[in-house]
């Protein structure tokens, strides 16, 4: 049996695993943004920005995987799109 260090890298992760990973990553992004606001050292700010970019890329991948399984992780996004089409 193959064990994955990152469960979303598994060939077909379960929706519950994706939801949990999505929430954890969203919390990490929020925390990084808070640290970024307080950081004055440019090198550290650059490093945090790089981590944010990687985290957002991964969050988008997780969101796409959730959508493939019929779950919209950004419910306000869905409502906003529905309003735009009315």
What attributes does this structure have?
3 helices, 71% helix
Outline the structure in words:
This protein is mainly α. The protein has one domain (14-84). Helices cover 71% and strands 0% of the residues. The protein is built from 3 helices and no strands.
Task: Provide a brief overview of the structure.
With 86 residues, the chain is mainly alpha-helical.
Give the secondary structure arrangement, pairings included.
Elements: H1 15-38, H2 42-68, H3 75-84
Whole-angstrom Rg: 16 Å
Name the average pLDDT.
Answer: 81
Q: What count of structural domains?
A: 1
Distance between the termini: 49 Å
Uncertain stretches: none
Reported for the largest beta sheet, the result is: none
Q: SSE order, as H and E?
A: HHH
Q: Structural class of the secondary elements?
A: mainly alpha
Gross morphology: elongated
What's the helix count? Answer: 3
Helix fraction by DSSP (H/I, runs of at least 4):
over 70%
Number of strands: 0
């Amino acid at each position: 049996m193959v064990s994955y260090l990152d469960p979303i890298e598994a060939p077909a992760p379960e929706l519950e695993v994706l939801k949990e990973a999505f929430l954890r990553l969203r919390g990490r992004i929020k925390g990084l943004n808070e640290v970024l606001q307080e950081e004055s050292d440019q090198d550290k700010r650059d490093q945090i920005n790089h981590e944010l970019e990687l985290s957002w890329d991964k969050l988008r991948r997780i969101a796409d995987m959730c959508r493939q399984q019929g779950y919209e992780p950004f419910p306000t996004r869905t409502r906003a799109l529905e309003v735009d089409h009315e």
